[in-house]
Amino acid sequence: MALSFCGNDDHFNSYNVTNGVLNNGCFVDALNLVPHVFLLFITFPILFIGWGSQSSKVQIHHNTWLHFPGHNLRWILTFSLLFVHVCEFAEGITNHLHLFMPAFMGFIAATTSVVYYHNIETSNFPKLLLVLFIYWVLAFVTKSIKLWKFAAYSVGPQHLRFCITALLVMLYGLLMAVEINVIRVRKYVFFANPQKVKPPEDLQDLGVRFLQPFVNLLSKATYWWMNPLIMGAHKRPIELKKIGKLPIAMRALTNYLRLKDAYEDQRDPDRSPSIWRSMYRAFGRPILLSSTFRYLADLLGFAGPLCISGIVKYLDPQNSERYFGVYFMSSTELLQNTSVLAVLLFLALVLQRTFLQASYYVTIETGINLRGALLAMIYNKMLRLSTSNMSMGEMTLGQINNLVAIETNQLMWFLFLCPNLWAMPVQIVMGVILLYYLLGPSALVGASVIVLLAPVQYLIATKLADTQKSSLEHSTDRLKKTSEILKGIKLLKLYAWENIFCDSVEETRGKELTSLKTFAFFTSMSIFMNAAIPIAAVLATFVMHHFLNEKGPTPSEAFAALALFHILVTPLFLLSTVVRFAVKALVSNGFFTWGSNLSTLSNINIRIPSGQLTMIVGQVGCGKSSLLLAMLGEIRYSNTSESEELSLVPLRIQTRCERSWKILRFDPFSFFSPHVAVKANQYLHWMCCVSHVCCNVCFCRHEARFKQRMLELTDTNNTAYLFLSAANRWLEVRTDYLGAVIVLTAAGASIWSLEYGLPSGGLVGLGLTYALTVTNYLNWVVRNLADLEVQMAAVKKVNSFLTTESENYEGSMDTSQVPENWPQNGEIKIQDLCVRYDPMLKPVLKHVNAYIEPGQKVGICGRTGSGKSSLSLAFFNMVDIFEGKIVIDGIDICKLPLQTLRSRLSIILQDPVLFSGSIRFNLDPERTCTDDRLWEALEIAQLKNMVKALPGGLDAVVTEGGENFSVGQRQLFCLARAFVRKSSILIMDEATASIDMATENILQKVVMTAFADRTVVTIAHRVHTILTADLVIVMKRGNILEYDKPETLLEQEDGMFASFVKADM
What we know:
CATH superfamily of the domain at 815-1064: P-loop containing nucleotide triphosphate hydrolases
Low-confidence stretches: 52-59, 590-598, 640-677, 681-699
Structural class: alpha/beta
Number of strands: 16
Shape: elongated
Oligomer: single chain
Number of helices: 32
Strand order of the largest sheet: 10-13-14-7-15-16
């Protein structure tokens, strides 16, 4: 390489211009330096001297606002320009200075142009773009002159320098066109009225901190905008408020409306709308973009094996033709230079991983947006489910939880893997074609092995899908049972049924674990096959190659083939995964249906006068609540007089927003004491006359508020998810680039070593082949370590729950010390009892003393919060008895094992709790009673005739929460449940709150008869129900205020009990 600028290989005067200056190659190359020097001379003072005073008048909170049209195209063209300049530099580096100096200066100028453009764009000062426009024009003209002279001297496409120059002319022309378009749109020059700009709404909101949609292309590709967050997270954990809000386009409401519009557009009488078509219409475009990125990444992935093949061959370039007195390299010679191939390998890896990470990000973002839209759609659908849907068991709480927690995630994960569905076949076909190019017909043997073993993979994937479906069913059942346990945990503990229900959950969990173990087995089989198929294919290919050619493949062929088979591992590994998630998505894609045609109300004709209070009364199960629910649109009904079905939404609008604005009341004060119940009654008629605003708040605005809250929570979850995805991409891009540097280093070291004859070509091929896999392994190691750290948070939570102090189930007495028939008499002594719910809280019962004789009927009353229910819970040791004691039949209950204590007493709670299953299971989950005893209990509870009429009788179905029975009927079942146990002590904690007064009076008499010889403690809901009690205890603020027979207390006219009775009359 000569040091003079205008050197040549023909040893004549390089500065000879006899034939004209444009016919001198050195002069043309020098002319090409002029635009680059011009740009650097103009832009450097602007960039480094300072131009901050020329800042934008538009105030925005981020320097990420993309102002100018053609932004992404400009960045793509500039990166392409940089790559071509690298090729130009590589082509001329071994020759004279004028052959590579313009390329070097062009690379510097192109880099400066993009930095200059970025600063102009973020400062919103477009007039300075005129410099770039002039630069593109000058560069286009000078390169066009060079291309013209090449053509004049018969330098054509067969020469690399001609191809590079032609590409540069095209790129400069396109960049010039981009600049003209900016001038046309923004009107910043040659126009009197420049276009006024307004920042996006998101960037005017300081709370929006997810900036991926707004940053420049380089920052998008490398996630550079995440740097401040990553650095901050390294110093201290990220708080939820730090991640801010989502951009409007990514919020759940936006995506819900997009999905809903796509769904509604399909409404056709001939066919029902498809959620799949809706998903495609709403989110198909980003999936296509992601697929494009994936195709580019997969195609670039094949550059690695080809570059390895070229490097191992180590073909020496041969000088050939000369023009303008210098050597012109052919296009193929460049690809035979090992140094060039090493750089190309590096650039291919960088681009391949960049496109791959971009594909991952776009699919994950789209999947998260889809999940947010589906959650909003499910929530809106859930709010529109009629009561009959829940009561008839068509849709249970467990199913809804499963739909929200699992099924939407399955669809999201399917979308994550969606580009693989069509990328993998292309990757496999391309791999086989290249193998055929390298090894000939023997490569078809390897392909045949893959094809023959594909059905095995498909079979395994099918088994995986089946076991996954089974596992989901068991998971739904387990979630349902767990949810029921949590909802009825108080009753379970009071009845000592924890073990029964835990056993049921564990049984379901056992089935689920069996499915999961089967799933794990088939997963292992799938992983094994994914690893074994490439090995088998390589082995078969090499054996067949040796058989056909009577010799093994060359090192370049062998290691290129090995690298190709390594590439094929990924699509083969993902094949079963993608199929599995596709099946999961098909399983998850369910739909809601409306209630059945079972009649709850019939022949109802009623008119409720406006402005008046209307009372609806009737026996338990007669349809009172159903009528009110029908008026609220919660139960579907048909107007038989008009013979037309009324749709749900118009019905709700009619009942909720009509001008009369009636207030529908489900006895809202039934759970309060008479004193508290009641002051509200003074305002009830006034409430009926309040303007429509009040009713709108009650029936419409709260629903909107809940929807809004759900959308906010979904957005918060999605924000964290998107930041996590962006952080993963930030990490993976950097580890990928580090892996590419490792490959470049290995290639460079190998080439340098070969020049000194150190390793053989085979060892070089081996080293480069496995250097290519370093990127994947490095990525997975870092990712798995990070994921492990994240998942350990779940372990921490579980451990925290396990270390939470639980009840002392053992007690100080052994079960064998407790008489079998305890408590036989039902004597209760309360001695200086002090109770609190937590050691940090004040006591709710303070030094309470009372004595209840065996078989005595005791009523306890008091205002809300007086300690009535706390006393009932103390009998079961459900609260902290930190002082005093309760002695039942001579045994301090605190010394008893909790299971023993609670299994020997009976209680009927204020809230009726039923579990899904059968009537028999709800009455006797321990399965210790005969049918006669169960029917006897139902008869006492006034339910025998109703249960007999049900299909199955005692085995009739009870849906989740007992929703297929009225509230009153549920309470009667709870009474029957207590009768079944036949304990000598019965606690009734406002047990008649949900039944009508007539039934209540009957039941009170039944209780007095059925438990005539038993001790009954009644927490009074209505004080008239305890007027026949043997003893009345009146409580106030955790103390016993009055304690005597009811008739004695009534004689004290100024007493509290007397005032309660007067209020209740």
